[in-house]
Design brief:
The protein is mainly alpha-helical. The protein has five helices and three strands; from the N terminus they run H-H-E-H-H-E-E-H. The chain has one domain: Arc Repressor Mutant, subunit A (Orthogonal Bundle). Helices cover 56% and strands 12% of the residues.
């Protein structure tokens, strides 16, 4: 990945880069799908079970968007009946650290809020 700007010195470039990232990863489900696929390839039905609350229609749309952006790949398996598996691409692997960081922050934040609620 190219890093031609210093985000500390160039706020406008940082905001543009964040905006570009959010455009690709927008929505409620994409980061969850990426997080699942960072650990192992999964079939559509496995993703549908793992990503709680997502509908089949939305999962299909999100998988297509992630594939278009080269973050995941769709592999047609030579089985009978034919099955499809989704896996993270090498490029998509670059998001693994980000998903881990977001998950860690979310865990800490949840604990902080729960602890704060107990004090009241």
């Amino acid at each position: 990945m190219e890093q031609n700007f210093d985000p500390i010195k160039d706020c406008s470039h940082k905001i543009l880069a964040i905006s570009d990232t959010m455009d690709i990863l927008n929505g409620k489900w994409k980061m969850s799908i990426i997080a699942c696929l960072c650990y192992k390839p999964m079939r559509y039905s496995e993703l549908l079970k793992e990503v709680k609350g997502i509908s089949g229609k939305v999962l299909s749309r999100e998988l297509k968007d992630l594939e278009i952006n080269e973050l995941i790949e769709r592999i047609v398996l030579s089985t009978a009946p034919v099955a499809v598996e989704y896996r993270i691409t090498q490029y998509g692997e670059s998001l693994k650290e980000l998903t881990n960081t977001i998950a860690e922050w979310g865990f800490i934040h949840r604990q902080r809020i729960i602890s704060g609620m107990k004090k009241e």
